[in-house]
Design the sequence.
């Protein structure tokens, strides 16, 4: 069995995620397509304290780019991406649509078991309305189809139309055609959203779909445990009897030579290396990673790869937060060397840094490299200044480095 050191495993993982790709001076649709081929999915989240979650992983790998590239890829022809529950809510390449059919069928079979049950009488009426009217938001249908909103479920205070539309999208009767400037979901029929050649693809069996998704997860990871491979597309590692199995998929890919068993230093779980994974001698990355970036979204993998204990504190009461509200790890080389709490204050056109924290063993240049990255991020966000607060052991050095950069 082959062996990888901890440092080699980090470099393999970062190369697989696109951090060793040669940057393009001006990112184009080709750059975006290459990057999404690395990440596999872009998680969608409504938090906009800094920048929308699905926009950040592209920035971290491509540098400053025109966000209209992603709008074009996900809402205009030729459509390259579509939104679905691929990880959680996420943008995924359109060719994954047939691989999600087993998930759609499962949601249909589990109807009403995830906290609310959409109105069965409304479903055909709303589906007919979408077919007749074309792309719609829930707001477009609320007056006609929605009664008073329920308040039993925190975070699920949705109108009747919204609940039915979301259910129809989950089971594949509708597809997400895009989002409005207010981030509202736009729904339409799949045949008006997805390329015809995608809809013509024969539906794979559930096990074929799971194996294909594990294959994609393995490419995006480079090196991974079974838990990592399962989590990437939110597959069950221990499925119910008769359900498709990640372990069966791994066994098949090992037999076919696509996955190679490896022993990774300090990893407790068995691991597999994708046969096409690069093992670079060095990684020259400098990037801030969104809390929803694929490099860090599976927290146990982040800890195993980087010895970096990471928890998002958005839903933690203010007095119990350790690092801040929206904290991004800072990747320098092949290590996570710091974390910073960030907020885009668009009214004052300032990137706020309430807190900055160095990791144990962070190199001396961490503050100066972080200043350079903060300056670049501010420019991409259309902000004119950076304001560093006092929270955290790295904050004084970061303020000094920022002042020095202004003086220089």
Sequence:
């Amino acid at each position: 069995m082959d062996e990888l050191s901890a440092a080699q495993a980090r470099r393999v993982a970062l190369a697989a995620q696109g951090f060793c790709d040669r940057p393009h001076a001006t990112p184009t649709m080709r750059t975006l397509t290459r990057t999404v081929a690395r990440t596999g999915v872009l998680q969608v989240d409504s938090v906009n304290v800094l920048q929308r979650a699905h926009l950040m992983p592209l920035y971290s790998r491509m540098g400053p780019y025109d966000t209209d590239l992603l709008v074009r890829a996900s809402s205009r022809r030729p459509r390259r991406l579509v939104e679905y529950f691929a990880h959680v809510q996420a943008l995924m390449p359109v060719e994954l649509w047939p691989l999600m059919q087993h998930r759609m069928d499962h949601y249909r079979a589990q109807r009403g078991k995830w906290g609310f049950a959409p109105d069965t009488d409304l479903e055909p009426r709303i589906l007919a309305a979408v077919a007749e009217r074309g792309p719609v938001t829930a707001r477009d249908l609320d007056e006609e189809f929605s009664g008073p909103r329920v308040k039993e479920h925190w975070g699920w205070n949705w109108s009747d139309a919204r609940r039915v539309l979301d259910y129809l999208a989950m089971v594949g009767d509708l597809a997400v055609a895009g989002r409005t400037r207010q981030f509202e979901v736009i729904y339409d029929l799949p045949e008006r959203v997805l390329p015809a050649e995608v809809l013509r693809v024969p539906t794979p069996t559930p096990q074929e779909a799971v194996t294909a998704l594990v294959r994609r997860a393995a490419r995006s990871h480079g090196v991974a445990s079974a838990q990592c491979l399962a989590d990437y597309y939110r597959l069950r590692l221990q499925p119910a009897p008769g359900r498709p199995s990640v372990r069966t998929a791994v066994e098949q890919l090992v037999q076919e030579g696509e996955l190679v068993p490896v022993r990774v230093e300090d990893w407790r779980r068995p691991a597999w290396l994708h046969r096409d994974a690069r093992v670079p001698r060095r990684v020259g990355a400098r990037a801030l990673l969104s809390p929803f970036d694929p490099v860090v979204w599976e927290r146990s993998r982040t800890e195993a790869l980087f010895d970096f204990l990471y928890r998002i504190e958005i839903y933690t009461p203010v007095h119990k937060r350790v690092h801040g509200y929206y904290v991004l790890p800072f990747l320098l080389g092949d290590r996570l060397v710091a974390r910073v709490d960030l907020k885009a204050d668009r009214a004052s056109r300032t990137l706020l840094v309430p807190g900055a924290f160095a990791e144990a063993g962070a190199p001396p240049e961490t503050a100066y490299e972080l200043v350079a990255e903060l300056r670049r991020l501010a420019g991409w966000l259309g902000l004119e200044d950076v304001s560093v607060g006092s929270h955290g052991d790295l904050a004084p050095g970061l303020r000094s480095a920022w002042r020095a950069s202004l003086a220089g």
In short: The chain is about 40% helix and 20% strand. The longest strand covers residues 335-345. Residues 101 and 203 are 7 Å apart (CA to CA). The mean pLDDT is 94.
